[in-house]
Amino acid sequence: MTTKLYLNYSSPFCRSVLFVAKHLGIDLHEVNVDLVDKQQLRPEFLKLNPRHTLPTLEDEGVVIWESRAIIQYLCNKYGRNSQLYPTDPAERAKVDMVLDFDLGTLAPALKAVRITKLVTNNSTKGAKPTEQQLTTLKDSLTVLDSMIGKNGGYSAGKHLTIADLSLIPQFLTVTTEELADYMHVRHWYSEITAKEMPYFDEINSMAVKSIEDRTRRLTERADKS
Ligand SMILES: N[C@@H](CCC(=O)N[C@@H](CS)C(=O)NCC(=O)O)C(=O)O
């Protein structure tokens, strides 16, 4: 039976699942879902995931969406001996804590600023993030920076975990200048991606292509309307 991942490489949450799968040596059958054409809203996809988000995993009849739940599942099922998701209750709780902090706080803060600055349609393209959005992001990055500093280079615990692999893809579109005040975050990103993720460049270059393609098509559509 194949393990299917519905994904789009432009999504950081999809790439976190790809990173974990690569790390654990899981062979995923990738099914691309075109977000510009809104294929995620097709009835057959809504049957799988009523929340119509990517990534969505289908594994032996089990359907899971929400990237952090997916990577936890992959570790529980296929990576029992891996340190990516430690089994010790205290160590695991630290990983879960960072994943929850990411889901509830950091990811929305990064998304708010990124979406305002970059993408989606004519009305927001090139707009400046609000002071409130920037303050929320700064506060979240300060928390992440101090956690990485305390842990000696990792977001949760003393070695690479799924917390790092969940966070890292979200920094693809963040510049080093934007991270000037967050020394530990900068170091964490460059060290881990270079030394502990041999699959990083390959997946990242597909992401860059996908983001460029998505931006170009959205711009063309906005210009026509
Ligand atoms: N919290 C979710 C966020 C997923 C998400 O927002 N995915 C976006 C792409 S980055 C998506 O699928 N958007 C399409 C939609 O909401 O219709 C996760 O971690 O899986």
Automatic annotation (TrEMBL):
GO MF assignments? glutathione transferase activity
GST C-terminal domain boundaries: 88-225
Q: Tell me the GO BP annotations in alphabetical order.
A: glutathione metabolic process
Superkingdom of source: Eukaryota
Ranges for domain GST N-terminal:
1-82
State a single Pfam family of this protein.
GST_C_3
Signal sequence, renumbered to the chain: none
| PROSITE patterns referenced in this protein's UniProt entry, alphabetically | GST_CTER, GST_NTER
Q: How does it assemble?
A: Homodimer.
Protein name per the record: Glutathione S-transferase
What organism is recorded for this protein? Answer: Oppiella nova
